[in-house]
Design brief:
32% of the residues lie in helices and 16% in strands. With 484 residues, it is of the alpha/beta class. The structure holds 2-acetamido-2-deoxy-beta-D-glucopyranose (4 copies).
């Protein structure tokens, strides 16, 4: 798995196209931005994505009896003890004419699920699976052992604190599909937000007890687009709908791609400040590259290529993590949530393709892959205007960042937030997870909390599960992060 930074986009190297969350993100940016300067009509801010005041019903079909049918008896290879919560999986139809359905996996909380909030988790890409990454490698209740057919428990799973819903979206990702194949080539941010909204309204018909429940949306990476866009769709639709009003309370996004200009600049600054690029390369990029218009000169391109070469073969998701070495794979042993196995993608891929696993999940027999090959048609350069609208709407808004990710690096997030010029409410300070250990740093602005997670890569809960759960708990409780 070779991951390169933004500069690989220019070189059109095949290695940039590895199907993973970041590979897909890079591919998108390349196709839309880097090949040519930004045209003025492309700079729409995404705020037009919701139709003007014309409500059209999104209820697709009766869900009677489907909750029961979606209940999972047990996942193959799950631990024999300690699985004391309900699991569900299946499809929700979002377009009856096209035959389009989205797949979900839902885990309730072991303790008092009826009093805990409902939380949606979305991975990015675009086009990557929240089941494969979020549920099976990050915050879900289980992770896959290196034997690739059994599971172990994640003691820091987020369903300790909430009922967590993982959605594979849009159609073409994971088990989500459409009977109209052109649907796979005509997707983008707009369609993803509107289909996810239709999914939620219809899912709530399946699980009506959650209709009025406090609801939060969380996600990472390119979900820095999906989450604010879906939240904005909900806020807008809630004003005009005569169907379910979703009780949206807040959103949290991690290592989130929210603004392309600061994203590129912050990424290269991160490489230099973390001793991965030379002074000369950094100076050349700063002098010759224009990340505001993305009019990339050949001199700039030369320095971007040099930047990649200097970084070498490291895991860009976590610059200090080991690479997956399949030769020295550990003998099938029980994994540990304390030490993230860099070969986890392989284990998950095998596991989710086992016919008995697909049957247990009520999935259509599918050649499952972590990231779908979906053609992306629209993606605004920035979602900061949407984020400003959400701040104005009064919902809770947290942005967090694992600080050893070089792809959507903490610098990019800080630069993006700084452009909003928000007033500081509580100054920058350390927060604590294990007693005595700094979990990261936090600053509260008016309407927005920004927190780092120390020692976490791009997938924060994979690398720092305890710190991630501390952060998540504070977020849904609306409480300050622990100060000791
Ligand atoms: C997204 O949808 C809105 C409203 O339907 C439309 O005006 C806009 O052009 C769409 N954006 C793209 C890039 O398709
Ligand atoms: C897709 O087509 C199959 C075969 O006709 C049908 O069984 C299935 O329900 C369709 N899916 C959707 C989401 O309509
Ligand atoms: C909701 O609005 C739709 C479209 O305007 C209409 O067909 C439907 O009857 C309305 N439902 C209720 C319960 O008012
Ligand atoms: C891009 O930059 C080149 C030179 O660096 C310049 O000649 C060209 O006009 C620029 N294009 C745009 C669209 O700004």
């Amino acid at each position: 798995m070779k991951l390169l930074l933004l500069s690989c986009l220019l070189l059109l190297s095949l290695s940039c196209n590895s199907a993973n969350q970041v590979g897909n993100l890079n591919k998108l940016i390349k196709s839309q931005r880097y090949q040519r300067p930004i045209q003025s009509h492309e700079s729409h801010n995404g705020l037009d994505q919701v139709r003007d005041n014309t409500y059209s019903p999104v209820y697709v079909e009766s869900q009677d009896g489907s909750k029961k049918a979606d209940k999972i008896d047990a996942l193959p290879g799950q631990p024999t003890e300690g699985v004391d919560f309900n699991q569900y999986a299946g499809y929700v139809k979002v377009d009856a004419t096209a035959g389009r359905a989205l797949f979900y996996y839902f885990v309730e909380s072991p303790q008092s699920p009826s009093t805990k909030p409902l939380v949606l988790w979305l991975n990015g890409g675009p086009g990557c699976s929240s089941l494969g990454y979020g549920a099976m490698e990050e915050l879900g209740p289980f992770r896959v052992n290196s034997d690739e057919n059994s599971l172990y428990k994640n003691d820091y799973a987020w369903n300790n604190e909430a009922n967590v819903l993982f959605l594979e979206s849009p159609a073409g990702v994971g088990f989500s599909y459409s009977n109209t194949t052109s649907d796979y080539q005509n997707v983008g941010d707009n369609k993803t937000a509107s289909d996810s909204y239709k999914f939620l309204i219809n899912w709530l018909e399946k699980f009506p007890e959650y209709k009025t429940r406090d609801f939060y949306i969380t996600g990472e990476s390119y979900a820095g687009h999906y989450v604010p866009q879906l939240a904005y769709t909900i806020v807008s639709e809630n004003k005009i709908t005569n169907q379910t009003k979703i009780n949206l309370k807040g959103i949290a996004i991690g290592n989130a791609w929210i603004d392309a200009s600061t994203g590129a600049q912050g990424g290269y600054d991160y490489l230099w400040t973390h001793a991965l690029n030379s002074d000369e390369t950094s100076a050349g990029i700063n002098k010759y590259c224009d990340f505001v218009t993305f009019n990339i000169s050949t001199t700039c391109a030369k320095y971007l290529g040099q930047s990649d070469d200097e970084v070498g073969e490291i895991d860009a998701y976590n610059i200090y993590a080991p690479l997956c070495n399949t030769e020295s794979k550990p003998a099938a042993s029980t994994g540990s949530v304390y030490e993230f196995d860099p070969c986890s993608d392989n284990y998950v891929n095998t596991y989710l393709n086992l016919p008995e696993v697909q049957a247990a999940l009520h999935a259509k027999p599918t050649r499952w892959s972590a990231c779908g090959d979906v053609g992306w048609t629209d993606s605004p350069i920035t979602v900061l205007p949407i984020i400003q609208e959400l701040i104005a709407s009064g919902i809770r808004l947290w942005i967090y960042s694992g600080d050893v990710d070089s792809v959507v690096a903490v610098t990019t997030t800080r630069y993006a937030i700084n452009t909003l010029n928000l007033k500081t409410e509580t100054p920058f300070r350390p927060w604590y997870s294990s007693p005595g250990e700094v979990g990261g740093y936090v600053i509260s602005y008016e309407g927005l909390v920004f927190a780092t997670v120390r020692g976490a890569g791009h997938e924060v809960p994979s690398y720092q599960p305890e710190r991630a759960l501390t952060l998540f708990t504070s977020f849904i409780q609306g409480a300050p992060l622990p100060s000791s």
